[in-house]
Amino acid sequence: xxxxxxxxxxxxxxxxxxxxxxxxxxxxxxxxxxxxxxxxxxxxxxxxxxxxxxxxxxxxxxxxxxxxxxxxxxxxxxxxxxxxxxxxxxxxxxxxxxxxxxxxxxxxxxxxxxxxxxxxxxxxxxxxxxxxxxxxxxxxxxxxxxxxxxxxxxxxxxxxxxxxxxxxxxxxxxxxxxxxxxxxxxxxxxxxxxxxxxxxxxxxxxxxxxxxxxxxxxxxxxxxxxxxxxxxxxxxxxxxxxxxxxxxxxxxxxxxxxxxxxxxxxxxxxxxxxxxxxxxxxxxxxxxxxxxxxxxxxxxxxxxxxxxxxxxxxxxxxxxx
Amino acid sequence: xxxxxxxxxxxxxxxxxxxxxxxxxxxxxxxxxxxxxxxxxxxxxxxxxxxxxxxxxxxxxxxxxxxxxxxxxxxxxxxxxxxxxxxxxxxxxxxxxxxxxxxxxxxxxxxxxxxxxxxxxxxxxxxxxxxxxxxxxxxxxxxxxxxxxxxxxxxxxxxxxxxxxxxxxxxxxxxxxxxxxxxxxxxxxxxxxxxxxxxxxxxxxxxxxxxxxxxxxxxxxxxxxxxxxxxxxxxxxxxxxxxxxxxxxxxxxxxxxxxxxxxxxxxxxxxxxxxxxxxxxxxxxxxxxxxxxxxxxxxxxxxxxxxxxxxxxxxxxxxxxxxxxxxxxxxxxxxxxxxxxxxxxxxxxxxxxxxxxxxxxxxxxxxxxxxxxxxxxxxxxxxxxxxxxxxxxxxxxxxxxxxxxxxxxxxxxxxxxxxxxxxxxxxxxxxxxxxxxxxxxxxxxxxxxxxxxxxxxxxxxxxxxxxxxxxxxxxxxxxxxxxxxxxxxxxxxxxxxxxxxxxxxxxxxxxxxxxxxxxxxxxxxxxxxxxxxxxxxxxxxxxxxxxxxxxxxxxxxxxxxxxxxxxxxxxxxxxxxxxxxxxxxxxxxxxxxxxxxxxxxxxxxxxxxxxxxxxxxxxxxxxxxxxxxxxxxxxxxxxxxxxxxxxxxxxxxxxxxxxxxx
Lengths: 321, 662
Known about the structure:
The structure holds two protein chains of two kinds. Chain A is of the alpha/beta class.
């Protein structure tokens, strides 16, 4: 079974603010997923209460997951995704729509073609549009390192560093694998679904090697904001020369580790109660969850600099045991 | 301030007779603009900043600095500079070049004080992040161009006030005090812009009020300050004008620095930002949401520790300007029973806002001022004209005032394509926010002006605060933030902001949770940010708690930087907004230095301008711990401001304000 998690529009929710104490940059994804689950659960809860056929609970959510999720074939939407009422307020031309797709560690690159199309399709459906302006892809395991870039010309493939999230640490793709993935994006570009293509966390060497293998060139390279004042000259010059814009981001590479997802969906205080606990009993789903990809979308009203719609979808496989 | 209208200004007794007439025509003009522009949609974000300078003139030989009164000569030089005109710049009220496609040279304006100069960008800024990087260099260019059109001994300085304004021999050229317009015992009439509007404004305020304006600033009590302090500069034996009796009737208060003329307030330099909203509803929302931020930004930009040669016990200029244009009569002030006047008025026409105007469902009745004074007849006219109650109330509140300067030529016929009568009232209501309808005759949209900030010594700081406010507005609109607190609390905060080091030590009422209720239904997740007028947001089902539970007292640091358990902080909100945008590394790095300045001003790592200047005075070798700022100290303060504006702390001087990094 495939699980499709969504945040709906997170603008205007408090989950978007990572407090100074919370350093992890995937806080936004996790807390906005949690907030969306909670809000949908609560409205179902209230409905039940007004209908007079629900048991009152003191604060904790007790409604079964089936009430607030929706199964379509082998897909389970968590929560029930309502594509009818989403969308943008003004016509398409008013917006800049940026999408960032995170490929996750330990997922075979051979699946990326399908994953990319799935992810983009969900975003198009959510925003009621037929194209996006910029797709940035994030390969698992690579992380730009200003020091490496400056002082060494060692093979970058060996220096890929993963954010210390604990589990799911996979290896780094070789350049040919990345190039293969890139062809999927080029196809989407040719179909007119994606305007511009971009990458995240590429140093100048990795960038130059990938460039040699692309037909549609990337126009954006995203660097983590904590490094934005120490971007090495080498990369700045290279990017300028190649017409690539260096943008900032605040995402971590391993955005949705398996353990985090299990906790999010699991039973207990902080979980959504979709997955059953390890003990027998309970009505949740049983099995192992494996996150497949995460996609973030942002629709900005161009000449006003207002973020009107922002959200995430995440997909995971449930391997029933 | 525009200079366009010319004619014969009426003296107060005549102006008073036609006040009702001007108001009625002003309301008709307002209705006409509102009807034309209420459906105006999808205007881009455009914004502009205003930098105001004092023009000083050094006399190095005598270690003396004076205010230069050559405003008109400098403006003439700017207006006739062919290169400047060719580049699109100049003086709009006299002559300017056509704005260019790309870079456009800045433009310059007269201000109330004849020692002042105002500079604005040649065309408005957009939200393109690269535009934001142009702001600081443009401010520096303005300063450079201004200087190039001055004499060798003259300099444009961004201090809020001239330290010894009102002391003997403070202007160049010198003029005798006690002129017929101001009747000030400290300042000559020539201190004001010579255009007939300005002396008339000053004279009619005084006339309407029935005595001179009265500014009493608490003096800073240092170790050797004589106590009780009696302002030693006050002359009790002057008999030129009836108003000379003011001081004999107790106008000068004990332990205060006493000032008696409009120029003491309106001669202050401010940093003002104006935004164009996408439509009237967004403008009304920005007006409301920025309003509670006003006092916080006033405290944060504090830069006014000296008045008339004495250290003051306050850090900001606001109340002095308020009193400098306070035209209320004794009846309106509540000093005498109401007999001839229509109502008691709690605030000066220069004061913090008293209204909220947004049709935001989150605006609770409890936030409004229950004692708001409005002209019910004019309000009814606006309602009859189709305007909604909130907006009609706002304008009917502004229109409780009398027009001060009326030109007899303008009263012949009502021209609904003009806004002169409306602007007569609107632009002499100097509140900390201003809601500006589109002007006739061009494509400009609804605008909101943010007015409380004090000018900073360097353009780095001025750019930082301007850009911070721009980013805050984007965060407000993107996150649909809610800063509402009862408007009387905003007024209280404005007073709080005056205290010495309020930025570090005072607490301000502020809303605890700025986030909107997350929609309960999964189906109602479409944002209202792009919809047309008005946005259909349904009120959340949950019953609202007591208003008092929505806000609490916070320090500026908590409001700006957030607290672990409470308010998220304006800087983290802005950072979060930036994280949602595609920002290039160079821009983000530059913006980080601006946000860092504000973060550190709020947490006390860096000093406010007021604190730095107070420290500078108290450690000056000429200072005798008696609160007196001597000519020599003044000379060094002004020189210091000039040096800091140039070096920005790179030479180590002023690093307490600016840090070391630049």
